[in-house]
Amino acid sequence: MTDRSLQDHAETTPARPGRAALVGAMFLMATSAIGPGFITQTTVFTARLGAALAFAILVSVLVDIAIQMNVWRVVGVAGRRAQDLANGVLPGSGYALAGLDVFGGLVFNIGNVAGCALGLNALFGLDFKIGGVLSALVAVAVFLSRRAGVAMDRIVIVLGFVMIAMTLYVAVVSGPPVGDALRQTVLPEQVDFLVITTLIGGTVGGYIVYAGAHRMIESGLTGPEHVRGITRASISGILITALMRVLLFLAVLGVVAGGVKLAAANPAPSAFQHAAGEVGLRVFGLIMWSAAITSVIGASYTSVSFCVSFSPWILKYRNYLVVAFIAVSTVLFLTLGKAPVTLLILAGALNGLILPFGLGLLLWVAARRRDLMGNYRYPAWLLAVGAAAWLLSIYLGWNSLTAIAELWN
Q1: Are 69 and 387 in contact (CB under 8 A)?
Q2: Whether this model's pTM surpasses 0.70
Q3: Sign of dihedral through CA atoms 96, 98, 101, 104?
Q4: Which spans are transmembrane here (predicted)?
Q5: Is 79 left (phi over 0), alpha (psi -120 to 50) or beta?
Q6: Which of 138, 193, 359, 401 sits most deeply, having the most CB atoms within 10 A of its CB?
C-alpha cells in the first residue's frame, strides 16, 4: 500500500464541515501545548523574571506564529503528514522525525499523567496514583468510543474554554501590576534566552505543532483551496495558547509582585492558593487536570499519527496503539513517580532543540519540492518568515545548551 493510499484510509471519523474540523484541529494543538509543563514553566519563570517575562512571551508568540503558519501550510496544502514529506525530501529522515517525536511525546506524557494526578489531588484530595490511573482511563475511553475523532475534538474544545475561564478568574483576583507588565513587554529589565527557547519549545516544539496539522489532514481539509482556513486556524491556535499564557502570567505575577515566595516543590498550586485561598487551590486543580488530560489525549494521538503511514497494520490498529501509548505512559508514571519541576522545564527546552530538524525539512519542501505540494506556488514572504524563525530557533537552541547542562547538573 502506498503512502497516499494509507493516508486516504487513515480517517478516524468521516470528514466534517470545514469550520468544525478546523476548530477541532486548532484546539487540539492549543490544548496539547497547554499542559502541566506549560503551567509549571510559566509559574516558575514569572517568579524568576517578574513582569519582564512579558517580553519573553511576546517574542515566543511571534516566533510560534511564524513556525506554525509554515508547518500547517506545507502539511495542509500537501495533504500528507510531516514524516511522509520528510521522507520525500531525504529518505529515512521521516523515520528519524517520527522517532524523535514519539520519544518526546512519551516523555511529556509521563508528565501529563502526573499533571492529571496533581490536579485531582488539589481538586478532591485524591491519592496521586489513583488520580493518574482514573485520568488515564478517561483518555482511553475517548479513543475506544465509536467516534473517537469527534469525541476527541469535543473534549479538547470544552476543557480549553474551562481552563481559560478559570485562569481569568484567578488573574482578576490576584490583582497583578498590569501597567508594569505592559511596559516590560517592549522594555524588559531582563532578557533570558533559555526562557524564550523553553516557551517556544513548549508551544510548537516536538509533537505539538503537528497535533492540529495531522488532525486537519484526517478531517479531509487539505489542498490549496483550503489555504485561507488553514492559515486562520494555525494563527488562532497559537493565540489561544498565548491568551492562556498571558492570563496565567498575570495571575502569578499578582502574587509574586506582593512579595510572596512560592513553594519550590509545587509553585503553581502555591500561587493559586495565595491568590484566592482554598477556592484558588480547587480552581488550580480543575485547570491542571483539564490541561493535563487534554495533553494526554493530544500527545498520544499525535505520537501514533507519526507512525500510521509506515505500516498497514499500524493504521488498522491505530486506536488500540493510542490506548497502549497511554497505558505505557501511566505505568511509567506509577513507576517513576511525579515528574519533578526541573524535568518538566528541561523537557520543554529539549523540545526547542528538536524543533529546527522538522521545520527545516518542511521548509525545504516549500522552497524546492513543489511536486510534493501539487505544484503549489509557496508565498515567498511566508517562506522568508519561516526561514528567519528557523534560524532563530537554531540560535536560541544553541544558546540554551550551556544553560540546559547547568540546569541538569
Answers
A1: no
A2: yes
A3: negative
A4: 20-39, 45-67, 88-110, 122-143, 155-173, 193-213, 234-263, 283-308, 320-337, 343-366, 378-398
A5: left
A6: 359
- For 341-390, write each residue's pLDDT tens digit: 555 555 555 665 678 889 999 999 999 999 999 899 999 999 999 999 99
Q: Report the phi/psi class of residue 277: left, alpha or beta, with left for phi > 0 and alpha for psi in -120 to 50.
A: left
Sign of CA dihedral 63, 68, 71, 73: negative
CATH number of 3-408: 1.20.1740.10
Dist. CA 163–CA 86, nearest whole Å: 35
Of the candidates 347, 264, 340, the residue with the CA atom closest to the CA atom of residue 299: 347
Residue 34 DSSP symbol: S
Rounded Cα gap, residues 212 and 72, in angstroms: 8
- Of the chain, the end-to-end C-alpha distance in Å amounts to 48
Residue keyed to cell 524535568: 343
| Residue 197 grid cell | 527557547
Using CA of residue 14, residue 17, residue 21, residue 22, what is the dihedral sign? positive
- Please report where in the chains the cell 513556525 appears, as a residue: 67
Joined together, the cell numbers standing for residue 15 give 470528514
In sign, the C-alpha dihedral spanning 355, 357, 360, 366 is negative
Burial class (CB in 10 A: 0-12, 13-18, 19+), 376: middle
DSSP state letters, 181-224: HHHHHHS-S---HHHHHHHHHHHHSTTHHHHHHHHHHHTT--SG
Tell me how far apart the alpha carbons of residues 170 and 389 are, in angstroms, rounded to a whole number.
33
Which of 3, 155, 61 has its CA nearest to residue 389?
Answer: 61
Tens digits of residue pLDDT in 214-237: 999 988 889 999 999 999 999 999
Q: What is the residue whose three cell numbers read 523574571?
A: 49
Domain parsing of the chain, residue ranges = 3-408
